[in-house]
Amino acid sequence: MKTLYKSYLAFAAMIFSLLLTSVQVNAQKTAPKIKNVVLVHGAFADGSGWKGLYQALTKKGYNVTIVQNPLSSLEDDVKATNLALDKQDGPTILVGHSWGGTVITEAGNHPKVAALVYVAALQPDNGENSVQWLQTAPPAPENGVLNPDDKGIAYYDKAKFHAGFAGDLSKEDADFMFASQGAFYAQGFLTPITKAAWRTKPSYGIVATEDKSIVPSIQHAMYKRSNTKITEIKGSHVVFISQPEKVANVIVEASKN
């Protein structure tokens, strides 16, 4: 009986060891190669809009940093992004929304950036600016971007902000976004890219299929031109707020490749 019991214990120990090894191997396969994520917001917004995506990513074990763009120029926004990248302890996924796509296209040359994720974002090439792409298709009727004022600051028409910018959010959430946005100096839209990082870094692009601020056809055209891996997600221009888990999944995919 003792011999049988010892044999049983030895067999159980072997099975446990095999199961533990299997779990460890699977964990290694699924664990992200890159744990750092830096999020760059766009115009007519600020960093608070990333809260839901921040929560989705941190629950998955990522170290997330949110850039507060000054929105005063492309150069200033790139500088703010580079400061955040300098603080990362290793390879980083750089994510940009809308105007933030132009910012990460330039800032993505930082040596710590391993991949780029464009979220309903602009993606110019060398020598191109943001306006060039915004003019390649007629704007949606809901679009409410106004001409710059006498200080050079562009605004979004408050009456159109909900439908044109954040149509799949509640009116209360859209009102908060409008109230918390930064002052965007329109000259940034006219500043050309000097070195497009997507030419040398793996790139992923999310097309927001219900976008009224950067219509989906423009997003598709930019991403196809650059051989960016495209994921369509049903959502407004702020799809990262309305669909944080789906946007997080694309970032997770970028972190594992």
TrEMBL record:
Q: Which Gene3D superfamilies match?
A: alpha/beta hydrolase
- Boundaries of every AB hydrolase-1 domain copy: 37-249
Q: From which residue to which does the signal peptide run?
A: 1-27
Which InterPro entries does the protein's record reference?
AB_hydrolase_1 (IPR000073), AB_hydrolase_fold (IPR029058), Sec-Metab_Biosynth_Hydrolase (IPR052897)
Keyword Transit peptide (UniProt)? no
Molecular function (Gene Ontology), one example: hydrolase activity
Coiled-coil residue windows: none
At the top level, the lineage of the source is: Bacteria
Protein name per UniProt: Alpha/beta hydrolase
Which source organism?
Flavobacterium crocinum
